[in-house]
Amino acid sequence: MLDLTPNALVAMLVVLAMLVVASITQWRLRSRLSPEAHLELKQRINSWWIMVAVVFTALMIGQTASLIFFAILSFIALREIFSILPVRISDRRLILALYLMVPLQYYWIAKDWYGMFIVFIPVYLFLLIPFGLLILGETKGFIRAVGSYQWAIMTTVFAISHVAYLLMLPADQNASGGGVGLVLYLVFLTQFNDVAQYIWGKKFGERKIVPTISPNKTWAGFLGGVATTTLLGGLLAPWLTPMSFWQGLAAGLLIGCAGFVGDLTISAVKRDLRIKDTSQLIPGHGGILDRIDSLMYTAPLFFHFLFYTSY
């Protein structure tokens, strides 16, 4: 079992309290919303209960369970990408091999082998994926296939695996929150940033940033959400991380901006492929990619910011 610090445990209870408030609010709004809008809101909140329960259970069971959970998350996300990309029939053997790289990447984390963790996908697989396609002998669509597969495994496996590696950082250097506190800090701020940008955009948003990609993204939403996330990052940093208030402000700013880019990037992918959601796995949310699009960008950036400033 992971060593849950009092601060990390309180953070979990706060998240659960927020879900209780959301559930009560949804119940009270049932007569004010249309049946369709109320059903979507109910589905979203119910899905959040399930997602939070699964994540918290994995974190509380222990390090191995947490690594397995994040490995499964990466596997499902990678599968979603391959299910929406125009994959060539000749590439199926290579795609199968890429699925097998998921447990290997998390094996480096379990062994706390940082050197291999940090170069395995961005260096070795980056070079081997084109070679694997060459062996298959299909040249039509070669460049698109190489770029698609490299980007897919970088975002869904390499990027997300940084969340899991937070649990391996020396716990004695973060007495306030431990590894669980670092994960909670990153994941909570990333998801909170999405909500904050949505609320600010709904309240004050008029000028759209990139209407051809995401019509709901406005300058007011972006700036308001990032400012809120930055402030919250500073306030939570001394409580859950080894960072100071001022370092937390920088981390919050980084998470706010990176989360926006991640969300917008997956929106562009869906626009290109002319789909609304990456799947229907999570009622009210869409697919795993729809839910972790921001995390794919915030995780590696926050990890290295924390690594080089606090460890």
TrEMBL record:
Subcellular location: Membrane
EC category name: transferase
TM region(s), chain numbering: 6-24, 45-61, 94-110, 116-137, 149-168, 180-200, 220-239, 245-266
Gene Ontology MF, one: phosphatidate cytidylyltransferase activity
A GO cellular component entry from the record: plasma membrane
Swiss-Prot/TrEMBL GO biological process terms: peptidoglycan-based cell wall biogenesis
Reaction catalysis annotation: a 1,2-diacyl-sn-glycero-3-phosphate + CTP + H(+) = a CDP-1,2-diacyl-sn-glycerol + diphosphate
Protein keywords: Membrane, Nucleotidyltransferase, Transferase, Transmembrane, Transmembrane helix
Pathway: Phospholipid metabolism; CDP-diacylglycerol biosynthesis; CDP-diacylglycerol from sn-glycerol 3-phosphate: step 3/3
Protein EC: 2.7.7.41
Mode of membrane association: Multi-pass membrane protein
Major subcellular location class: membrane
Annotated family: Belongs to the CDS family.
Protein name: Phosphatidate cytidylyltransferase
